Amino acid sequence: MKLNLKKLRKERGWTIDRLAAASGLSRGYISQLETGKRLPGPKTLTQLSEIFGVEPSDMLLSREATTTSIPIEGVVGALHQGDQVNYDFKSKPLREMIARPDVLEGKNVEALSVFGSHFAPYYEDCGILFYGAKKRLNPEGFLGRICVLGDASGKTWVKIVRLGETPKTFHLISLNPGAVPMFDVQLNWCAPVMLYLPPDLARRL
């Protein structure tokens, strides 16, 4: 998913330096936005659309490109489930498809849909989490990162991983400060969250 940024900038005869001065964004960051190496947050997307006098949706190039899709495997953040992933949800259709962002082209990933405000302000309702489809047996390489995790009881979670007190266990920390941490949990697999798209950038198919 790339932005229409370079086209809009050139139509105005602006250099990257001039856009950087107008937006307060760094030259390097703007260059990465134009090449699709970085994705803007909602505030940056709105700011840029206001500078060029267009709607935020008009900043996206994804509809003009051939799109590959990724199935949404489940939801996370639903009422009474919090950090636990629900694969059998009733409120949204299973196997809904999401357009693959350009920055994940060629990568083997899966997707989850965020439901509700449990993860606010980090993740919004209807945002999309992309995580590695290759499940790692040893989570130690992802300590301190947000991951999708499968525990020994068969449940799946979205948590920050910390090293446990007892051998081969891990502490699982929620992004929600009101949630109780899970201590000394045995894990079957771990997959790092690779990208989050807020709802206004996530294109459902």
Written description of the protein model:
The protein is an alpha+beta fold. It folds into two domains: 5-64, 434 Repressor (Amino-terminal Domain) (Orthogonal Bundle), CATH 1.10.260; 69-197, Umud Fragment, subunit A (Ribbon), CATH 2.10.109.10. Helix content is 17%, strand content 28%. It has helices spanning 5-11, 16-23, 27-35, 42-52, and strands spanning 69-76, 85-86, 97-99, 109-114, 128-132, 146-151, 156-163, 170-173, 182-185, 187-197.
Layout of helices and strands:
Layout: H1 5-11, H2 16-23, H3 27-35, H4 42-52, E1 69-76, E2 85-86, E3 97-99, E4 109-114, E5 128-132, E6 146-151, E7 156-163, E8 170-173, E9 182-185, E10 187-197
Parallel strand pairs: 1-4
Antiparallel strand pairs: 1-2, 1-3, 4-5, 5-10, 6-7, 6-10, 7-8, 8-9
Keywords:
10 strands; ten-stranded mixed sheet; 2 domains; 434 Repressor (Amino-terminal Domain); alpha+beta; 28% strand
Structure at a glance:
With 205 residues, the protein is of the alpha+beta class.
| CATH homology-level superfamily of the largest domain | Umud Fragment, subunit A
CATH class of the largest domain: Mainly Beta
Strand percent estimate: 25-35%
Described by the principal axes of the CA atoms, the overall outline is elongated
Helix content: 10-25%
Give the CA-CA distance, first to last residue: 14 Å
Number of domains: 2
As a whole number of angstroms, the C-alpha radius of gyration is: 19 Å
Uncertain residue segments: 62-66, 90-94
What sequence of helices (H) and strands (E) makes up the elements? HHHHEEEEEEEEEE
User: Main β-sheet: number of strands, strand sense, barrel status?
Assistant: 10 strands, mixed
Give the helix/strand class. Answer: alpha+beta
In CATH, the architecture of the largest domain is Ribbon
Would you give the CATH topology of the largest domain?
Umud Fragment, subunit A
Mean pLDDT: 87
